Amino acid sequence: MNHLFDRIRFSLGAAASAALVVSAPIALVAPQAAIAQSGGELNAAVSALRSIGTMTANFTQTDRAGRTVSGVMTLKRPGRIRFQYEKGVPLLVVSDGSALTFVDYQVRQVQRWPIKNSPLGALLDPSRDVAKFGKLQPTGNPNVISIEARDTSHPEYGVITLIFVRNAAAPGGWELSHWVALDSQNNRTTVKLSNQRYGMPVSDNTFRYNDPRTTGRKN
Known about the structure:
single chain, alpha+beta, outer membrane lipoprotein receptor (LolB), chain A, 20% helix
C-alpha cells in the first residue's frame, strides 16, 4: 500500500507542479478547415463544463501499472473541488477557489498550487477557455467527444485529455466521463467518474481541510 501512496503522490505532485497545459492561457488552434468541422463539438464540451454549478461523482484513479484507488469527488464552480480518497488512503486533494492543495496526512505535508497552474484548471478556473488551447481528437463515435490539450513549446508539461459522453440529463447535454494525464516521463494517470449527480446544495465548508502540520487547525 505504501507503494500505491507513493505513486499517487508522484502523479498528483508531478502533474500540478509541471502545470499541465489545461491550465495554460495559450492558443493552440487547428487549421481553419478543421475548425469549421470541430468547432461545434468543442464548443459543446466547453458549454457543458461551464453549465456545471455543483457536482458529485465517484472516481477511480489508475496509474500505468494498473494500481487503482477510489473515492468521491465534489465540485462547486467556480474554483472549488475535493477529492476524498477511500478509507485507509491518507491523502486529500482540495481547492478553495484560489489554490489547489495536496494534503498528505501520513507525512504531515501540505503543498499548494494556484488553480491556473494545476491540471484541473479547465474544470475550476472560469477564465480558462478549453476551446482556446485544446484540440479535438477523432473518436469515431458521435456520442463521445475527446479534447487533448498540450503546450508544444513546453513538452515537459505533458498532455491531458478530457473525455465527454452524450447524456441528455447532464448540464449542456454532455457528461465528463474521465480524463487522462500523461507526463513527460510517459507516466499515465487515468481518473474515471461514475454516478455523477448535479445541482445539489454543497456547503463551502466542504472545501476546507484539517492541516496536519498543526493539530486541530483548519484551512
